[in-house]
Design brief:
By secondary structure, the protein is mainly alpha-helical. It has one domain: Growth Hormone, Chain: A. The protein contains 18 helices and no strands. The protein has helices spanning about 10-15, 30-50, 55-60, 65-95, 100-115, 120-150, 155-185, 200-210, 230-235, 235-265, 270-300, 300-320, 325-340, 345-355, 360-375, 375-385, 390-395, 400-410. α2 (about 30-50) packs antiparallel against α8, α4 crosses α6 and α16 (about 375-385) crosses α17 (about 390-395).
Length: about 425
C-alpha cells in the first residue's frame, strides 16, 4: 500500500526493486567506464573463442580429418560455449552470482592456450569444450552488466559491448596464425604457439578481478526477487519466438561461413595468414555493422534495420565464394557488415522482454541461439562430402537470411516507451 504523502511505503519500494543486474530501469545515462570494462572482457573472451577456427585447415591436416569432422568439432565447441550460457544465466539470476566473470575467463584462457599440447584428438576436443564452458560462464553476466551500464541507449550500448567481442574475435583471426607460426619457428609443434597468449589472458583475469565493474554498485536494503522461469520467462515465450528464429537463422549462416570460408581458402592453396585475414575482415565488418545498425535503429526503427540488413547480405556472401582474393576480402567485409548489422538490436529486444532476468536474456540471445545455429557447420560439412563441393554447401546457407527477413516482419519497430529520434520513421 502506498502512502498519500511523503515517502513511499516499504511494500512500494519492494515492488520497485531492481533485479540483480539493475537493468529494469532503462532510462539512466550511459555509464562509459563500466561499459568499457565489460567490453574489454568481452574482447578477450571472444578472442579465445576464435583461436582455433582460423587454424582449422591445420587441425584437419594434423589429425587427418574430413570436412564433416571439422564441422563436428565446431558443433561440439559451439554447443558447449552457447548452450552453457542459458544454464549459467539462469543460475546467475536465480542465485545472484556476481563475481563469476574472472573465473570464467581464466578457465577459457588456460584450456584454449593449451590445445596444442593435447596428446590426442579426444583431449584436443576436451580442452576446447572446457574452454567453451569458461566462455559460456562469462557471457550472461557480462551481457547483463553491459546492459545495465547502457541506460536508456541499450541497443547502442550492447552494440559497443558486441563490437568489443567482435574486435577480439577478429584480431584472433590474425593473432592465432601468427602465434602458430611463431611456435613453429622456435621449435614447437603445430598449434603449440597459442600458449604465448596465456599471459594476456591471465592479465585480463587479474584486471577484471581487480577492477570489478560491479564493485561500486550500491547495495539495496531489500534484496531483489529471485528470477523464476514460470513467472518471468514463460509468459514472454510467444513474443520471444520470432526474434529467436531471426537470430538462429542469421547465426547459422554466420557460423557456417566462419567455420569453412578459411578452409575453402586453404583448399585453394592460400597461406594460413591469408586464411586468418579472410575471417578477420568478415568479423571486422560485423563489428562495424553492429554499431552502425544499432545507431540507425534509433532513427528508423528496429524492424526496418533488421529486415534490410538480412536482405542485403546473401548476394554478397554468394559472390564471395567465387571471387578473386582482393575482391573476396571486400565482399566478406560488406557481408559481415550487413548480415550482423541488426544483431545487437535483436539482443536488446530480448532484454526488453525479460527485464527481471538480464543474465538469462543475454544468455538466450548470445548463447542459446548460437548453440542451435552451431548445428549448421556439421550439416554443411556433410553436404560438402556428399557433393564434393564445399563452395556449394556454403552457398546453401545464404537462403537462411532471406527466410529470417520474412520472420522479422513480425518484430516490433521500437523499444517499449521509445521515441523516434527523427520526426518521421520509415517503419511504424
Amino acid at each position: 500500500m502506498r502512502r498519500r504523502h511523503g515517502r513511499p511505503s516499504t511494500a512500494a519500494l519492494r515492488n520497485r526493486c531492481i533485479p540483480i543486474a539493475a537493468v529494469n530501469n532503462n532510462t539512466g545515462p550511459l555509464q562509459r567506464g563500466r561499459l568499457a570494462a565489460c567490453t574489454f572482457g568481452h574482447a578477450i573472451s571472444d578472442g579465445f573463442a576464435n583461436f582455433t577456427p582460423p587454424l582449422f585447415h591445420t587441425v584437419k591436416s594434423l589429425y587427418h580429418l574430413a570436412d564433416s569432422d571439422i564441422g563436428l568439432i565446431s558443433m561440439l565447441f559451439s554447443l558447449t560455449t552457447n548452450f552453457g550460457q542459458p544454464i549459467f544465466g539462469y543460475l546467475i539470476d536465480r542465485y545472484r552470482l556476481r563475481n563469476v566473470i574472472p573465473f570464467g575467463l581464466g578457465v577459457a584462457s588456460v584450456f584454449m592456450c593449451a590445445v596444442g599440447f593435447a596428446p590426442s584428438l579426444w583431449v584436443f576436443v576436451a580442452f576446447m569444450m572446457l574452454s567453451g564452458l569458461g566462455i559460456a560462464l562469462f557471457h550472461p553476466r557480462g551481457g547483463a552488466l553491459a546492459a545495465e551500464a547502457s541506460g536508456s541507449r541499450r541497443a547502442y550500448g550492447m552494440s559497443i559491448f558486441g563490437a568489443g567481442g567482435a574486435t577480439g574475435y577478429a584480431l584472433a583471426s590474425l593473432g592465432a596464425p601468427l602465434l602458430h607460426d611463431l611456435g613453429l619457428r622456435v621449435g614447437l609443434r603445430p598449434l603449440q604457439g597459442l600458449i604465448f597468449a596465456l599471459p594476456l589472458g591471465l592479465a585480463a583475469v587479474y584486471l577484471l578481478w581487480r577492477f570489478n565493474p560491479h564493485r561500486d554498485a550500491p547495495d539495496t536494503a531489500t534484496p531483489p526477487p529471485q528470477f523464476s522461469l514460470r513467472r518471468h520467462l514463460l509468459p514472454h515465450l510467444r513474443p520471444l519466438l520470432p526474434v529467436f528464429v531471426v537470430m538462429v537463422l542469421r547465426s547459422a549462416t554466420v557460423t557456417s561461413f566462419a567455420t569453412f570460408i578459411q578452409v575453402l581458402q586453404g583448399d585453394l592453396g592460400h597461406s594460413p595468414l591469408f586464411q586468418g585475414a579472410v575471417l578477420f575482415v568478415f568479423v571486422g565488418g560485423a563489428a562495424s555493422g553492429g554499431m552502425v545498425g544499432s545507431h540507425l535503429s534509433e532513427r528508423y526503427g528496429r524492424r526496418f534495420i533488421t529486415v534490410t540488413s538480412l536482405l542485403l547480405a546473401p548476394p554478397l556472401l554468394y559472390y564471395a565464394l567465387s571471387a578473386p582474393p582482393l575482391l573476396l576480402l571486400g565482399l566478406l567485409f560488406a557481408a559481415g557488415f550487413t548480415l550482423r548489422g541488426a544483431e545487437h538490436v535483436n539482443i536488446a529486444q530480448t532484454q526488453d522482454l525479460l527485464p527481471h532476468g538480464m543474465s538469462t536474456a543475454s544468455a538466450i540471445s548470445m548463447g542459446f541461439t548460437w548453440g542451435i545455429a552451431g548445428l549448421a557447420p556439421r550439416i554443411v560439412g556433410m553436404i560438402s562430402e556428399r557433393t564434393g563441393n564445399l563452395a556449394f554447401a556454403l552457398a546453401c546457407t545464404t537462403v537462411l537470411p532471406v527466410i529470417a527477413a520474412g520472420v522479422a516482419l513480425a518484430l516490433p519497430t521500437r523499444a517499449p516507451g521509445a521515441t523516434p529520434r527523427a520526426e518521421t520513421a520509415l517503419v511504424q
